[in-house]
Amino acid sequence: DTGHFTYDPGFGSTAATKSAITYIDGDQGVLLYRGYPIEQLAEKSSFLEVAYLLLNGELPKQAEFASFEHQITHHTMMHESLKNFFQGFHHNAHPMAMLAASVASLSAFYHDDLDVDNPEDRKLAAIRLIAKMPTIAAAAYRYSIGWPMRYPRNNLEYVTRFLHMMFEVPSEPLQLNPVAAKALDLLFILHADHEQNASTSTVRLVGSTGANPYASIAAGITALWGPAHGGANEAVLKMLEEIGTPDKVETAVKRAKDKNDNFRLMGFGHRVYKNFDPRAKIIREMCHKVLGELGVNDPLLDVAMKLEEAALKDEYFVERKLYPNVDFYSGIIYKALGIPTEMFTVMFAIARTAGWIAHWIEQHETPGARIGRPRQVYTGSAPRDFVPADKR
Ligand code: SDX
């Protein structure tokens, strides 16, 4: 076996999971959400409309979107006692730790009126998760910097509401540049789903046991946190800061090729894309535009561009088909928006919640879907008899 993870999703075979949500062609660098190219959605849609598309399979008519947005807006508050939950965290707890714990604890608030076999309950859970993720994420950030939490404001659209909860302070009105909300909305679209990646496979496997959606999504959050997966965006910024200046890039590329050096070019390579990650292309162009519109001049962008140029012409990376992935440039934009490094993977989690819950629902709606059961190739001892301790 190629070491790739396949499990019998209950279709009576050990074929890979079947899904109608997202299509990737790794060799051609193609990414479709419900058949729509990511490039078109990035240019013409919004994150909330894409969330509707992932959940329902079709782009919403105006009345359908208005109803969906109204439901989301009226589920953004978290239970007041969940606010107290944060007081128990250590003051410098990582926001991903707080996010995973808080989302798992939503099970305690909604567990008794949730029947995972009831389609209406499943849809309500999707609304609650997409609606509350920004509120919980912003609360984790505010707790980590000792600021009072802010309630969601229903007169704001989804991403602007999140930025207000993140950055608004009682002492002065928040001056939000509309470029920031547009840029973050686009990043959320690009991160919304990606078929059977590690965290989505985790959500599906946990969900296949009948576990409630909040526990399933919390499992996805913890899987995403790893630096080989969603944690890479935070790791890329740390790597760029460690490299420091463009003249140090050649040394970094040499280290990344040295098997005795565990230095990896974070934001490079992908399990599936053996061509440019189409999301990375869009984010790279966005970088220049957003930093220009925000009047931000970040020297790390020069380091990133020099690193990309050096890696793309180095035979080690070329022969291994290692290209920049979605995480390579996103951190530079998050930083320009004032989002701290330790919150980068939280941004990824907010967006991917739409994909995770769409997959969780799809699995429940798949006829014959059974509990996932990863298989293995046994490499242990042959059968043998027990040896008493005094004979070992
Ligand atoms: C995401 O699955 C998804 O869809 C994920 C994601 C999503 O939207 O959900 O796209 C989001 O997780 C993107 C990936 C973010 N991770 C990183 O940027 C971390 C750095 N990348 C590597 O850790 C790695 O590329 C992975 C984890 C992404 C992929 O790991 P693989 O499958 O082991 O990589 P590979 O099989 O393509 O590796 C082939 C070779 C190996 O060397 P050899 O054994 O052939 O000598 O390339 C090497 C690897 O060691 N290699 C790297 C490298 N990535 C792979 N060498 C240096 N730097 C790197 N970044």
UniProtKB/TrEMBL annotation:
Q: Which UniProt keywords apply?
A: Acyltransferase, Transferase, Tricarboxylic acid cycle
SUPFAM superfamilies xref list: Citrate synthase
Check the record and name the CDD domains matching this protein.
EcCS_like (cd06114)
Answer yes or no on keyword Transferase: yes
Family label? Belongs to the citrate synthase family.
The protein's matches in PANTHER family, at most eight in alphabetical order, are given as: CITRATE SYNTHASE
Instruction: Write down what this protein is called.
Output: Citrate synthase
